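Lecture 7, part 2: worked example. A protein chain together with adenosine-5'-triphosphate.
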Amino acid sequence: MEIEIKNLSKAYSSEKSVLSGIDLELRPPSIIGLIGPNGAGKTTFMKILVRQLLASTGSITIDGMDIGKNENYLKNRLGDLPQEFGLYEELTVYQLLDYMALLKGLGPEKKERIESCIEKNRAFR
Ligand SMILES: Nc1ncnc2c1ncn2[C@@H]1O[C@H](COP(=O)(O)OP(=O)(O)OP(=O)(O)O)[C@@H](O)[C@H]1O
Ligand SMILES: [Mg+2]
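Predicted complex, written out as structure tokens:
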């Protein structure tokens, strides 16, 4: 996936700009870390990249396509590894996987994938 960011800026208010004029090209193969002091704007940047927040100026394209116009293309390719894991303890394993599969957009193959996943992990119980 190629990400091209041009002139990206974000201000939450007229007094203070958080990101200003970022130009960045991210190309595979790469592992990219985003580092900076508290309040530098890392979370703001990531939220804009996943369309959780709108930028004040600039453009972002993914594989040449505007992320605003191709949100599904973007979201089908996004993965998320949270810092802390949380499970819904009121759900069974099947129900939890069913929910995850729904969020991932799995179609008719959902049931078979869930059952195979549970079967493969039986040894870890
Ligand atoms: N919703 C918001 N409204 C107003 N200001 C905000 C909002 N979110 C963040 N800010 C401000 O924008 C700046 C950047 O915040 P951001 O959370 O993006 O930084 P960060 O690099 O992720 O910080 P940290 O390392 O603490 O997670 C900070 O000054 C913060 O106070
Ligand atoms: Mg942050």
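Residues 93-104 form the longest helix (12 residues). Residues 12, 18, 36, 38-44 surround adenosine-5'-triphosphate (ligand 1) (CB under 6 Å). Keep this in mind for problem set question 3.
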